[in-house]
Amino acid sequence: MALLMHAAFFLLLGASLARFLMRHPGETRTPWIIALSAVLAVLYLLGPVLGSRPTPRRLTWLGALVVVWMVLVVLAPSFAWCAVPLFYTGLRILPPRAALALVALLTVFVVAAQLRLATGFDPNLVLAPPAVAAVATAVFVHMRRQAVRQRELSVRQRELIDDLLRTRRELAATERREGTLAERQRLSMEIHDTLAQGLSSQQMLLQAADRSWDADPATARRHVLTATGIAESNLAEARRFVHDLAPADLAEGGGLEAALHTLAARETERSGGGLTVRCHVEGVPAAPLPDRVQSALLRIAQGALANVTEHAEATVAALTLTHLGDRVVLDIADDGRGFGPDRPAPRPPEDVRGHGLPAMRARVRQLGGTLTVESAPGEGTVLSAAVPLPHTGTSSAPAGPPAPPAPSAPSTPEEPA
Known about the structure:
By secondary structure, this protein is an alpha+beta fold. It is built from eleven helices and six strands.
């Protein structure tokens, strides 16, 4: 709009000068009109150089511009229509009240100039200039308010964008922290259920070998060989951690069923005849079990059997995997010493994660399942982990009649390892 007003000013100034020269050629005031027109044009050109803020220099410039225009209007009333761009200039520079006063003054000069040009009284010449001035002022005020509102909206939008970016950064940082904590918890459970349990078994076997080294060398050698086998298994688990943190038994293929059979055979062999572990699978899965479910159930079985070996004093343990269509259930039972309500299994504080039963509960909870433990003194322990499965549209019933209960009772040590 500023460019439009600048162009309109010079167009009106040129038209007014041309009209005067055509109507009044050779008059004595002509040189003054031409000189004042040139001064007015030069003054107007200096305006953008001084800026738009109401500084003293800017106000002095505006006063000189208005005075030169008034002198021109007195000498040649046809220059009155240059007032419209001057309205805009005054409204831009002056405060609202001063700008309105200037517009009123310029309007009075325009009306007086038009009446001088008229041959008689014409109401239009009295009413038209104020109407034009009012419309020009209203348009400018409205546009300025819109500009102020737009600037405020822009500032608000920038603030909202900054808030959004800051919130996204904070959210990303929070998610990274939560992911780091979750990964630490998962790694602690993985290490406890595999490497830590294996090292504990090795320690027990080597201590037993040390005690029987002189009295029964054959038994001591057997303990050392068993500890060596456990070390090899732990080495495979450690390498698997480095690769993708999946259980080594699952990585060999065959799925969860084969991994449980392998686990049962290995724990039986490690015990040297002290513990027999059986594995039984009921039903057929409608679809392959998710990797997370297989990994979690295998880790639960490993941790539970480690607890049986270390705490339960059992001779027989049973792993039972049951496919029920909408869920899969893993039962670990043993015929160990068990525990009763008067001597519940010790539980570490809730903030201690990745150890024994709390680790198993955490694994099952992450999958939306439940973990239950049933036990009685002298009757063993039964641990049952039930995990829901995604809906497949079909159900799979057990392949035959339910298997007889495991010897004595199911198994989880009364003390979390």
